[in-house]
Amino acid sequence: MHLHHGGILMYEEVPMVEMDGMNLVETRAILRYIAAKYDLYGRTPKEQAWIDMYAEGLKDLSDMVKFLPLSLPGEKEMNLQYILERATTRFFPVYEKALRDRGQDFLVGDRQSWTDVQLLEVIFMVEECKPKVLSGFPLLQEFKARISSIPTINKFLQPGSQRKPPLDEDSTEVVKNIFKFEHGMSLKNMGTIIAEH
């Protein structure tokens, strides 16, 4: 049975995760469900609000990095500089301040949440664009080392794990062919697709 025709996909699109007898759709709903199920979604509504706010900012930054390989050839370097500027002046300062102000090992509360894992992933994504991007953020450097050493996360970061590498040239061409982009995408403020080419 095809998912599309079988009524399995609520909005006829992926991602979809089968869990606890449900077909969960929509990335944020999936992440929140898993976080709540495994006690990674805060203890109070206030903690959950902080987690959601941090997660939404991290999504903005990760989307910019994910779309970078699909940039129009003449815009790729400009988009990279924009991402690095936003990461170091808008996003990373927020997380550095949160760690400093709270004096805790984690972004929210006194235990790990899904936003800590998401921040670690976004740090890796931006470092793949510029390896020393955290040089001005000592608390984020400590955070990266601390979260990376959690046994389950450390195992996931080892070579051969399910962690996906950034898009290489061949993968980029496959994506462009699937979505019928001849040259790439033109991005407005690295957040909104304004034209497909």
Give the proportion of residues in helices.
40-55%
Biggest sheet, open or closed, and with what strands and sense? Answer: 2 strands, antiparallel
Number of helices: 7
Question: What would you call the shape?
Answer: globular
Give the termini separation: 34 Å
Elements, N to C (H/E): EEHHHHHHHEE
Question: Which sequence of strands runs across the widest sheet?
Answer: 1-2
Number of strands: 4
Structure description:
The protein is mostly helical. It contains seven helices and four strands. The protein has a two-stranded antiparallel ribbon. A two-stranded antiparallel ribbon has the order 3-4. The protein is globular and about 50 Å long. The relative contact order is 0.12.
Observed structural traits:
197 residues; mainly alpha; two-stranded antiparallel sheet; two-stranded antiparallel ribbon
Quick summary:
The chain is mainly α. The chain has helices at residues 27-37, 45-67, 76-102, 114-129, 138-148, 151-157, 169-178, and strands spanning 16-19, 22-25, 185-188, 192-196. The longest helix has 27 residues, at 76-102.
SSE diagram, text form:
Elements: E1 16-19, E2 22-25, H1 27-37, H2 45-67, H3 76-102, H4 114-129, H5 138-148, H6 151-157, H7 169-178, E3 185-188, E4 192-196
Antiparallel strand pairs: 1-2, 3-4
